[in-house]
Design brief:
Number of domains: 1
Oligomer: single chain
Mean pLDDT: 87
Largest sheet: 4 strands, antiparallel
Order of helices and strands: HHEHEEE
């Protein structure tokens, strides 16, 4: 069992920062397309582990356009790998 301190340290991982940065960029894309940004969420490693994912962080937009994850470019940065997890979620991993 992980401690609260462990989960807080995980929020300092590059993947968590990359997920937040991606979510901000996604909000800008949504605004430019006159779409609601409501529902764009970043989930921490604690959330991912308790909900069955192995990702270090997730960006989820359930209320986004159908298949938005297939129609957006995800660029991997140094130390972080990102991939489509499902039709409304992008997963981020520290490498």
């Amino acid at each position: 069992m992980r401690t609260t301190a462990h989960w807080e340290v995980c929020k300092n991982q590059e993947s968590y920062y990359a997920a937040h940065h991606f979510a901000l960029q996604l909000e800008e894309v949504a605004k430019a397309s006159n779409l609601s940004t409501h529902g764009i969420k970043v989930f921490s490693k604690k959330y991912t582990r308790t909900h069955g994912s192995i990702a270090d962080a997730l960006v989820n937009w359930d209320e986004g356009p159908d298949g938005w994850t297939q129609n957006i470019d995800v660029v991997n940065t140094s130390g972080v790998y990102a991939e489509v997890e499902d039709e409304c979620t992008i997963a981020f991993y520290d490498i």
